Amino acid sequence: MPARLLSLLAAPVIRTCLFGAAALLCGTAQAQTPVWQAAAGAGITQSTGALAQVYATVADANGNAYITGTFNGTARFGTTLVSSAGSNDAFVAKWNGTTNAFDWVLPLGGTGSDRGTALALTGNTLYVAGIFTGTAALGGVQLISAGQEDGFVAKIVDAGSSGNVAWARSAGGSGFDGLTGVAVGTTGVFVTGSFNGTAQLGGLSLSSSGSNDVLVAKLTDAGSTASFTWAQRAGGTGPDLAQAIALSGPNVYVGGYYSSASAEFGGIPLPNSSLSTIDGFVTKLTDTGAAGNFAWAQRVSGPADDLVRALAVRGSTVYAVGNYNSATLSAGPFTLGNNGGFDVLVTKLVDAGGSASFAWAYNAGGPGGESSSSVAVAGSHVFLTGGFTSSTVSFGGTILTNTNTLTDVYLARLTDAGASASFTYALSAGAAGDDYGIGLSIGGPRVYVGGSAGSAAQFGAHTLPPSSTGAPTGFIATFTDAAILSTASTDWANALAVYPNPARHRATVQLPALPTSAVLALTDALGRTLWQHTAPPSAAHSTHTVPLGHLAAGVYYLHVQTGAQSVRRTLAVE
Fold this sequence. Notes:
The chain is mainly beta. This is T9SS type A sorting domain-containing protein.
């Protein structure tokens, strides 16, 4: 693999979270521009040369946050000490948003080098994806790598005071393989990553076209076990890597970057703008149950290196973030300039089923180097985080000032107005060392950012102490955004999905988590109720089947009401 691509792939891993041991809490958020409300360190290293790094975060609606990453030596998470079995072990830890303390930490790994790279959450069930070498113990499950590095995915049940592994599966072959993204939906667990040569996923086999290819796979969770249902590859003769995965109903979206002269996504070619650089991609697969089929692929491209690092989905809208150092970048009909070095990229695509189009694209940056590593969406509000090295960096009308000559954390919010968007605000954090935002999630009205901070990094009025070994300090920082509070009651409508549509014998309605019950009703063109169902409150998304076999072909209307809010979807019956 070319050294440049290796360095770009390693950047979000090497420059992520090293944790120290403190929790700092404070008052209330402002009405419009939030302030940091809490900043918590975790996983302080206890032995010389030891470290703990975090690569992903996810939050629930109750204010709890989960982190995953890697550590070696002995590390402290609150009052809990964990020691690695090898050079590096993976871990998953739960931060309690009520007590502001860690409820539990679960080490995962063996004598080799292991790391968790991604998390997904539904109810009290976590799914973690990552990379391991040699033999790794994940709870009571032992995995053995088939080659240099393999990917893993595991299910962890949060029991309150502990996290328990229910099952774990590996993916890979004799080369360097890994999983870098995981998402969970009503039809299964989906993972993405890359592989080299031939990779085994249970009874399924994939072969790469050249160096590393993109991997996308679905697992069926049977409770205490799981099996791979389907697997797909994408790419060309060069190194091609996936970084992110997101779901909306049966639609599976994957983002990453490729260096092949032309990368194939299920017969859909994406040419590279240059034979010696990297372009970013976003692609969609449709999960039919037993198979996953590519529907479309889009690229962001220019004469230099351009990357997609993270995705977020709301209905048929896909948000992609990354960074680029091309002098000009093309995203469909939109062309972006460059402020110098790498600039932040944020763009919106609209999925039309068999195709997609760019709705808008924006950049942010200064004369130095900026990156975006994670994105989350709540209603029309899009949040992104990363790091910036410029002395000043502009996010719309907000100018952030770097505290040093290295890297500071930023958190920015855009408001999506449909055909355009605008930056609403931006926050920064940091001190004398290198500081990065790497993980981002939304739980209730709270925004959570995880990352790596240097000595005595400041989050507004709050300062994180360094670790006792002098290593950088990891953090989870949070604030409440009033805009999320105002849209939380209606955002469920944007997350509601009905599929397939058109349908024949039955249709599935996917509802997001709801604090109160919802009434579903199917009516005809005359307004007559043909079917009705009450969905109970749920802490996670739920699915409900609408029987259609007794209906004549035609157009019907599905009504969903929760509290005073209601939404209608048109449903075609064949």
